[in-house]
Amino acid sequence: MHLMVMHRPVTRLAVVSLLLLAGCSGLLLRPGAPAPTTDLPASVEGASGQLASGTGCTLDYRTFVPAASARAPGANAAADWVILAHGFLRSQQRMQGLAAAMAAAGMQVATLDFCNQKPWAGRHVQNGRDMAALARHLGAQRVVYAGFSAGGLAAVLAGGSDPQAVGVLTLDLVETQGLGVGAARSLDKPLLGLAGEPTNCNALDNGRAVFAASARAQVQRIEGAGHCDFEAPTDGLCELVCADPDGPEQAQRARIISRAVAAAGALLEDDLAAWRSPAGAADGIAADAGVQPGRHATSLPGSRGG
Any idea where the domains of the chain sit in the sequence? Predict the structure, then answer.
C-alpha cells in the first residue's frame, strides 16, 4: 500500500523523515568499496571502479558492457558510452536493471553513486560535473547522459556542458531551482524523456517545464506509471513514500526499460524516427501533447527530486 501523501493529513516532519529514510535506504546499500555487479545476463559483463570527484570525495562506479561473445563484428569498444544516474539520495543499484538491459542491447553503460549530495542539498550541478568526469575517465568519445528523477536533472546539466554528448535521456525528470530549464534553453542536442503520472515524488510532473524550454525535446508518457516504476529494482520504502498510481508495476517497469533502451540506442545511432513513433497508446505509451518544445517555459515549483 502506498502512503498517499497528497491526500492524507500527515505532518511535514513525518513526511520528511520518510523521504530521507527512503533515500538513505539506497545509500546504505553502497559498500565501502565498489562491489562487483551480480545477477547479470550471460551476454553482459560487469566491472567496478572508483574515481575522485572534483570536490575530493570518491565516486564508486560500475560498468556494464556486452560480453565479448555478444559484441557485433567491428563494434567500437571504446568510443560510445551511456552514463546513467540514480535519483536523489538513491544509489546506482537502483539503475542496474536498466543498465544491464542497455548492455544486453549492445551498449556500454556506466552507473555511479553521487558522493556530493546531502539530505538537505542535491548538489545537482556538481553531480552533472561528476557524470562528465566519469565519461572522460572512461575515454568516451560519444556520450548519452541519462538519469532518473534528480539524476535526470544532472544528466541535462552534463549534456549541456560536454561537447562529447550526443543527447540526453531523462526518466521521470524532476526540476529544481530552474537549473534544468536554464540548461535546456541552450542545449544543442536531442533531449528525450519518459514521464509517468504526476505524483508527489516527481513534484507533480514539474519536469515538463524543462522539455518545454528545449527546441529539440521529445517526451513520451508511460500512462499509469508511478515514480518508483522508473527504478529497476526499486524498494518498498520508495513505494511507501511515493503516492504512485496502483497499477501493474512489473509491466510498467518492463515498458519503461524497453522504451529507455530504444531511446538511448536512437541517440547513439542518430536516428530518432523510430523512437518518435512508439507502438501506440494501446501499449500504454503516448507522445506527451502537453509539452510544446521551444516555449522557454518558466520552471514550475520544484523539489530536490526522488
Answer: 12-287
